[in-house]
């Protein structure tokens, strides 16, 4: 049986990805700027990681107008929530040794 | 106050590094091959990550001969153990949300 580290999900194998998913698990939907401020990130850093999570199907993106201003919000998808839960329990097993 | 993800230790921000430290925290000293087998890694992959942990001062390397054969063993340093404990508690705080 392969070592536990191989069961960890590569999509979450980075502090920014962990941070984004932790925020999205705790909130129904979050705007780009709220995510950026909550995690103290640059636009570019956050955008690249959120795009990767979206590509993996773990985050959904909705674009709407608030008044005349475009607004982008993110939410963890059903697959994202279950994959992240699995990642967390593997991490806990690994770290308990 | 900066978000928790910035308190995570970059030296451990990767599944292989987590795996190496988890094994070294549970064992006094471990040979390269034991680490490689325990974590199902290639020589190159393990060597690069162990070298980075050594450079960070978190892992100590001892080289000795067993009979005529050279043997390299690794151990978590005192700084490595305390830095890894801190990383784990930050990870737990982050994941508890």
Can you put this structure into words, describing what you see?
- The structure is a homodimer of 97-residue chains.
- By secondary structure, chain A is of the alpha+beta class.
- Chain A has one domain (8-83): Arc Repressor Mutant, subunit A.
- In chain A, 54% of the residues lie in helices and 19% in strands.
- Chain A contains 4 helices and 3 strands; from the N terminus they run αβααββα.
- Chain A has helices spanning 15-26, 32-39, 43-55, 78-96; strands at residues 30-31, 59-66, 69-76.
- A 3-stranded antiparallel sheet of chain A has the order 1-3-2.
- The radius of gyration of chain A is 15 Å and the shape is elongated.
- The interface between A and B is medium-sized, with 24 and 24 residues.
Q: Please identify, by name, the CATH architecture of chain A.
A: Orthogonal Bundle
Helix/strand-derived category of chain A reads alpha+beta
How far the N terminus sits from the C terminus of chain A, by CA atoms, comes to 16 Å
Name the beta content range of chain A.
15-25%
Give Rg of chain A in angstroms. Answer: 15 Å
Number of strands of chain A: 3
The largest inter-chain interface, given as chain pair and residues per side, is: A-B, 24 and 24 residues
**What is the CATH top level name of chain A?**
Mainly Alpha
Helix content of chain A: 40-55%
Number of structurally distinct domains of chain A:
1
Question: Looking across the biggest beta sheet of chain A, what order are the strands in?
Answer: 1-3-2
**Biggest sheet of chain A, open or closed, and with what strands and sense?**
3 strands, antiparallel
Find the CATH superfamily of chain A. Answer: Winged helix-like DNA-binding domain superfamily/Winged helix DNA-binding domain
Shape descriptor of chain A reads elongated
Mean pLDDT of chain A: 92
Regions with little confidence, pLDDT below 50 for 5+ residues of chain A: none
Number of helices of chain A: 4
Give the quaternary arrangement of the chains: homodimer
GO biological process, one term (chains A, B): regulation of DNA-templated transcription
InterPro entries (chains A, B): ArsR-like_HTH, WH-like_DNA-bd_sf, WH_DNA-bd_dom, WH_DNA-bd_sf
Domain Winged helix DNA-binding (chains A, B): 16-95
Pfam family, one (chains A, B): HTH_34
